[in-house]
Automatic annotation (TrEMBL):
Source organism (scientific name): Capitella teleta
Membrane-spanning ranges: none
Residue ranges constituting the VWFD domain according to the UniProt record: 441-642
UniProt cross-references to InterPro entries, sorted A to Z: D8C_UMOD/GP2/OIT3-like, Dev_Signal_Modulators, Helical_Vwde, Ig-like_dom, VWF_type-D
Domain (Ig-like) ranges: 202-303
Protein name: VWFD domain-containing protein
Keyword Disulfide bond: yes
PANTHER family, sorted: EGF-LIKE-DOMAIN, MULTIPLE 7, 8, VWFD DOMAIN-CONTAINING PROTEIN
Keyword field: Disulfide bond, Signal
A matching Pfam family: D8C_UMOD
Amino acid sequence: MYLRVVILTCTTWSQATETETDCVYGTDSSFPDFLQCISEERRVKRDAPDHDAYGHPCHAYTPLIQPERRVSNRISELTADALCDRTLKRRWYRFDGPSGGAMPETCVQEFSCGTHAPIWMDGTHPTEYGRAVDRTVCMSLAGECCQRRWYIRVANCGDFYSYLLTDTPGCFMAYCAGTEEECPEGLSSITGFTPGCSDNFPPLEGSVALSLSGAGHEVAFYCDFEGPLPSSASIEVEWFVDGPTSGRGSTGLYPIWTDHMKGRRRSSLTEGRWMGKMGSDIYCKMRAKWDDRTGVPSPAIVSEKYFAGIKIMHTTIKVSEAGEEAMIQMQPTVPIKCLPQFDETCKVTVELAHDQNVQDRKCVDGNMRQVVFGDCKVDFTPENWGQVQNVSVRAVRDFYQDGNKKMAVRFKPTYSTLTSQLWNNYELPGVEVLASDAPTKMCSSTGDPHYNTFDGFYYHVYLEGEFVMYKHNKMPLQINTRLEQCGKVVTCNCAVAVMAADDVVVIDRCNRRHRNLAFGKSFPEGWKTLHRHALQQGEKFTEGLKIFEYDEGRKYTIHLPTGAYLDFLVGKNWINLHLHASSDDWQSTVGLCGTFDGDKGNDLLHPDGVTVGHAEHGAACGESEDVCDFARAWRVPKNESFFKSVVEVPLRDQQFFNEGQQYCKCEKQGGASKVVCNYNYDVQNCQAMKAQEEGHEKTHSLLVKTRGSELNSMASMSFQSDFAARRRKRSVADIEVENRVNDDQDSDNLDYFQMEFDYNEEFVGQVPTWPTPRGITEDYARQYCNDIILRSQAAAVCGRHIMDQLEVITDNCITDIKVTDDLTWAMSSLDTFTSECVTEINTKASLWENQAWQHQPVESGEEDNRPQTIAERLLDHVCPNDCSRQGVCARGKCVCQPGVTGSDCSIRIRQMPKIVHVSGGGMCDIRLRPCRKMQILGEGFVNATDLMCKFTAADGEIITTQVAFETFEEISCFLPENPVTFNGDPATGEGSAYRTYFLTIHQGPYYTQQTPIIVYNSACMQCSLDGYPTCTRKSDSCLVNGHCFAAGETHPTQCCLECNPIENEGEFTVKTCKLLCSVLIAWQYNVCYSYSFKATDDFALLPDQNSYAVAIGDTFSLSIHAIHPRACGMTYHVEATSETSSFIRTDRDGATIEIDTGAKDAHYFQVTATDECGSETQTTYNVFVMPKGEIPVHHVTQQQVPRPGASRNCTDNNSPRFDEISVTMSVVHDELVPLDFMATEDDVDDALQYYVLRPTSAIKVASDGSLSYRAPTTSAEDVLTYVAEDLCGAQARLEVRMATAPCPCSAGQRCIPMEGMPRGNMHYDCLTVYY
């Protein structure tokens, strides 16, 4: 038999919780009018078992033990802690307690049962055991007994009733249960409630105190009675736990243990009796009972409650996208005790499991997050158990206007290591996080240029120079823009520099003049081609400062660490800038973009923070002095420019952008936790993440470093530092090429810093009148602009969403045409309109919502098959430059019409590419760089497979090489392999001093004009490209078998041969050796002598003291080394002139003699050193081994006399020591590695000196005495003896093995030691450095 049931699903709004909820179930249609319900027919089998869905009502129930639910519990209308069943889950419940366990069957007045709107049962309870029946419940509200009603189920379980309940529509509404009342004052009963109240009980007067004990390895509670003990009676102590038990209701009504005390005042609750009750209030009650068991117990005396567990200090915290982080604070109230065998080594771990119940927006990695955390777990130990531990919570800067959000932060059940079971599976209550949204807006500088501030004030700037577009008041963030004349009457954007901390990203297309070169010679007039670099001035590049490239270099986006980002769009004759503010910018900006505080009236704020200009909306500098004064106030002096090789920045005396602070995503995936941490998780910009995933980031490939004098082996930047109390100043550093470039980099990056940006500070543009010189009228310009904008694909997508911006953008378009007399400038306004469209789509959260993929994050490496959101579908129809109206937009890419190509369909296929400039003017000196490729600047380049470079040699040979595409205006051509050599060995083959080519760039069947190229060696060749490429030999050089050498240069492999063009310009000449020799001698007592002197044809190793005395049993070694000024190879020979037991070792670096000092003896050695020129010297060394007492007093001993200059008593001296006896360091060719090993010594007043025995030329000594090792340029292994010596001459020695290997990076990259990693372990970054 079936019953037709209509289930009404109703939706209502609860003002108390501000949430929308499905709320009421029933078959009655008499619902209030404000409830909007839809009906759904379902067929439910009448005799279906009640335990199918929710279990058996008499067994699978949740206890609700709250005496506060009794009918007689009246509360005030203002009571804030009234009962609320808004969060009840639909399941079986049993009411239990001394006031009764049955719901009332008659009307209950408002503000009864401990709540505002009590709920009672309109009907009688069933009498048949185990049978569940339907009943109606009513809610008393607004003076009505049954203001709302819905169905429940109730079952008779013999001794109690079980109710199938659901949550209430809102707060404060709760189910009533129990009709008994508390005993009147002076009476008592077994339960404390009616019935059975009596005055027959023993008196009990005093107080009860609860205390915690952590003695030993267990935690116990004590309940102490303070007062007179009753006679003829005993005290009954009941221990209670009031709190969650496995998350299912309260257990505070029934005691967990009862203790009967006779003659005692203290009751103990041992750890085993309250095991599993963590997270509850523990308290005790004492009542007196007659010994003869007559009467009733006395009224109870109750102790204070003690919360046992981990206290959450604030269960609700608030964070804002524009604010600081907040803290989840946790504090254990119970000592953490280790198991006896693991004393003081245990811990209790609490893990966060963020419930992502508001992941409603799609992003690259699955979804966006509202908040992130400083960590995903907290460890409590026996040492810190009473301390508050913090987990930081930060609102994610997400660039969405998505309103305020609530989310739950939950905790996984605790787990402990090496402790008792007391803490295991303890589940902390959740924390509610309220994340408030913050505004984000866009500031634009477009066309010639028109400024639209963050707050929407619109004006025009017609001045030249460098200006502060944006500056953050609290963080070291600033954006400067350059304006130059782009016609006779106005100016335009031509460059931007973005500074974060001490680093700067530059994109420059201004008209630049070279300081040292005449125009038309090596650079085109004004050299206006796009330049980009990322200037690193500190030890590492600022985290979060990034540059991305799009559309073959027509668009760039620079991201700041706060999440703000700047779009830089390159047009034919214009550059548009669109700056998107972060929530961190709210009420914190100044500059040409205004103050971003919602008030247009103060946007013309001057740098003094006081003066505010006042101008009409749409005013222009040239028409309004206030606008001109405002813009001039933000003009940057030339010496403070951001476009220099070294930029003056404030001294960094604090951390910004959460530097060094990682934030984590703490999520649940199935039953497991997923924890991922990163330094920029508090800023999540979907578009940046997508661009990075697609490989458009250019930050590191454009890096220029100005850290110090040793920039790399290619070039150095010198600068002086003048540190004041709060400022760091660096002088302008011109880059000088000191060594040959061994990277495959382009020297034109060096030339950029030799460029000057000239501008006229007195220039003020003026807007002309209609019609233009070409006859364009205002009406025609308006019609043309409307046609361009309104018929665009962006208008079809976003027209109705950004119509409020249309008027301003159209006015910009008309003004651009008016001042330029050029209709193509309308495309600048179309770009602005498109940017507004994209911004509107990206920031409107509702467009990114899609219920079909909520809570379905995409794992790394998996294909994202989720359906597109509305925003994604809209963005598929927005393309760059509206495809130049020569193509259609499909999935965000232009599909060009036949005959045109390019990312925006702007290049005609039959359009011939054009070379504007070749790096170095077409000349490449092999002495300065390898000449493997050349930078080509030009027009009409398309990133296609048919783009190639062709070189025609002087003999007619044609060589085709690869192209490295950079932008639509820049490519790099790989040069042919050529015989022009640098430092080549004439014996290995014939070389070449120069090679000439003619270069053409081919794009399909079309190609550029021929451009002459010369690769040469400047040591002996003087070359020119005037008219025709020619080279002539220099008189002060040698040309040996086609290899170039300058006068005085040494043969590559034979150091005794040099280039002497006076003697022979075609062959090497034997040189006369003039040596500067240095001898370093060391022995056990560590007194080192260094002798340096000039010699003639011969040289001598002649120390003042060549005789030494050593005590029997001491260790003695002698190292001899000669340093040749021209690195000529040295050979050493040692001959013992008497029989001796010693160890002698010689190699190209020197000679080492170690003496056996086991017995009294005399040792004589003759040392001969010979250089490659045949010069030699001989010295005899005498070593006498004797008892210590026979050593003459003028000899130094470590036991008697301290080191010269020391004033220490050496009696009972302790020797220094290293932690190891040997270490091995793996380094790369030519790396400079600090030798900073530290020894320890027990004598705290001692000072250790460090040096290397038998040092070679690879050992470098700085002015401060610090040592370093210069690795050779070939793979080898070197062994050093590193010595630490104290004031008394006692030593410790460390053997250092230096293993040298090639840099593992690819060609064109340099090995840079990783930040924070130990040196000598092959921890390197591969970095391409531009200069």
